[in-house]
Design brief:
alpha/beta; binds zinc ion; isomerase; 27 strands; metal-binding; A-D-PHexomutase_CS; binds 6-O-phosphono-alpha-D-glucopyranose; 8-stranded mixed β-sheet
């Protein structure tokens, strides 16, 4: 048996180690400085306290980006030195963020142990590689991100840290082969368990979805499928689930081999960055595809985001969550007993609200950020939730879940086609969306991003919009001067949220203008940008009249876009005549 000792290494604080709820994200060149990662990890152990660390079972894995392998060895040695009892590592260090959440909640070790927390090594949809980003975040025993109380303490600890502990004499673990290695340290046994990355997650998915019915769809000659993991970790799970379990053709997987630099791409599943999928699905402006697949989807680097596409058809994330919620009870066994409630983030379109109303479901509108859903789920108040930023999920875990969203769509396709896979026409993704609009009305929706604008200008623009809100009459006068064909603003405010579970209040969560006909304009500053400020403008128009739901989205939204840009004086404050990204 290999014996290790505990060494205390002297260190000094680094500036700027403040984690958000999505963890600490920095350039790789920052992370590889001697002691940088170590300081953060020790600060986390100290913030958790001895009772959450001594004897603990920790998951350590991530999206496989550059520096992950080194980081896993460092964290394992530090865990051993801090009295952790077991470290669990997905094979090759690969686990999607939702898979980590599932492993924490569901996996039982050979000795009956359960995980107490996790270090997730990812910077989500940010590019990877020696010149790009690395990240680390800590998740708690419920499988969700550490709450602010803990992340604040981690940060305070990083500002005063003087030493960290690391095991000496503990060899690097071979993370490419599954199996348990056992070591002896001053506080007793220490085990490293390298396990199959997908088994536990797959088991959870099988307890939620009807796999045989999805298999029927995937094997039907009428159906075709394409999944693009953008070289992120979702590729590992996709191969096992879609190909090996559900029988999809191997050629339906694109970019499903994880790469440390995501093949040089930007692993964010949207119409701009998921280029290959967009082309295959017949949605590229420059390339024409003669016969696109019936269904396509993409994931981000760590597999928690998703984009869903039909043949030559884009499903907005806001519609996606509404459609999943509307069909869940019939199509997904996990929800057959009914939904506890549904929730969306404030800037996400109100498509979900209409479903909630029709189905008489509890409904919550929360600020941007997945953590707000977690509280509702822990309290048993929410089953399905989603965000316009390509996040969809449910209370099966405490992270958004990209592959879950695809399985939800496959389940809906299976349900809608249960009688016509033999004869009759396939009910397509586009059919399902159009039927949904015909039943519930359509929320035309677009988002304009102004990236890396001057922070001062962005602040002034927001202040200008807040000031305008004091007189709705004045606002309506200005608007009528811009376009006479938009309806009246009936309410305007800065969104504020009181968490119904813990009573905490979140202020200044974005500026809303609500129109009489259900249209909305929302302005907010991004919380995830790394340079300057990013202004996001969300534009939404509700159309109940079924003869008007088939319009081109850009065209339908043109009057509101004009109003938004002129009312906010966008060009004046930002110097920009066009957005950086338009979705
Ligand atoms: C992260 C969070 C999401 C959130 C998004 C918003 O991805 O996990 O829950 O919707 O950031 O980003 P933004 O840049 O709009 O603040
Ligand atoms: Zn992500």
């Amino acid at each position: 048996m290999v014996m290790f000792k505990v060494t205390r290494v002297e260190t000094t604080p680094f500036e700027g180690q403040k984690p958000g709820t999505s963890g600490l994200r920095k350039k790789v060149k920052v992370f590889i400085q001697p002691h940088y990662l170590q300081n953060f990890v020790q600060a986390t152990f100290n913030a958790l306290g001895a009772d959450r660390v001594k004897g603990a079972t920790l998951v350590v894995s991530g999206d496989g980006r550059y520096y992950s392998k080194d980081a896993i060895q460092i964290i394992t040695k530090m865990a051993a030195a801090n009295g952790v009892r077991r470290v669990w590592i997905g094979q090759n260090g690969l686990l999607s963020t939702p898979a980590v959440s599932a492993v924490v909640r569901e996996r039982v070790g050979a000795d009956g142990s359960k995980a107490t927390g996790a270090f997730i090594l990812t910077a989500s949809h940010n590019p990877g590689g020696p010149h790009e980003d690395f990240g680390i975040k800590y998740n708690m025993e419920n499988g969700g991100p550490a709450p602010e109380g803990i992340t604040n303490t981690i940060y305070e600890n990083t500002t005063t840290i003087k030493e960290y502990m690391i095991a000496e004499g503990l060899p690097d673990v071979d993370i490419s082969t599954t199996g348990v290695s056992s070591f002896d340290g001053p506080e007793g046994k220490f085990n490293v368990d390298v396990f199959d990355s997908t088994s536990d997650y797959l088991k959870l998915m099988k307890s939620i979805f009807d796999f045989p019915s999805m298999q029927k769809v995937l094997s039907s000659p009428k159906f075709s499928f394409c999944y693009d993991a953008l070289h992120g970790v979702a590729g590992v799970h996709a191969k096992r689930i879609f190909v090996e379990e559900l029988g999809a053709n191997e050629s339906s997987l694109v970019n499903c081999v994880p790469k440390e630099d995501f093949g040089g791409g930007h692993p964010d599943p949207n119409l701009t960055y998921a280029k290959e999928l967009v082309a295959r699905m017949g949605l590229s402006k420059t390339h024409s595809e003669p016969n696109p697949p019936e269904f396509g989807a993409a994931a981000d680097g760590d597999g928690d985001r998703n984009m869903v596409l039909g043949k030559r058809f884009f499903v907005t994330p806001s519609d996606s969550v509404a459609i999943i919620a509307a069909n869940s009870v019939q199509a997904i066994p996990y929800f057959s007993g009914g939904l506890k409630g549904v929730a969306r983030s404030m800037p996400t379109s109100a498509a979900l609200d209409v479903v909630a109303k029709h189905l008489n479901l509890k409904f919550f509108e929360v600020p941007t950020g997945w953590k707000f859903f977690g509280n509702l789920m822990d309290a048993g108040m929410c089953s399905i939730c989603g965000e316009e930023s390509f996040g969809t999920g449910s209370d099966h875990i405490r992270e958004k879940d990209g592959i879950w969203a695809v399985l939800a769509w496959l389940s809906i396709l299976a349900y809608k086609n249960k009688d016509n896979l033999g004869g009759g026409n396939l009910v397509t993704v586009e059919d399902i969306v159009r039927q949904h609009w015909a039943t519930y009305g359509r929320h035309y929706y677009t988002r304009y991003d102004y990236e890396n604008v001057d922070a001062g200008g962005a602040k002034e623009l927001m202040a200008h919009l807040v000031k305008l809100q004091s007189s709705i009459d004045q606002v309506n006068k200005i608007i009528k001067g811009i376009r006479s064909d938009v309806s009246n603003v009936v309410h305007a405010d800065e969104f504020e949220y009181k968490d119904p579970v813990d009573g905490s209040v979140s202020k200044h969560q974005g500026i809303r203008y609500l129109f009489e006909d259900g249209s909305r304009l929302v302005f907010r500053l991004s919380g995830t940008g790394s340079e300057g400020a990013t202004i996001r403008l969300y534009i939404e128009q509700y159309e109940k009249d079924s003869s008007k739901i088939g319009r081109d989205s850009q065209e339908a939204l043109a009057p509101l876009v004009e109003v938004a840009l002129k009312l906010s004086k966008m060009q004046e404050y930002t110097g920009r005549s066009a957005p950086t990204v338009e979705e």
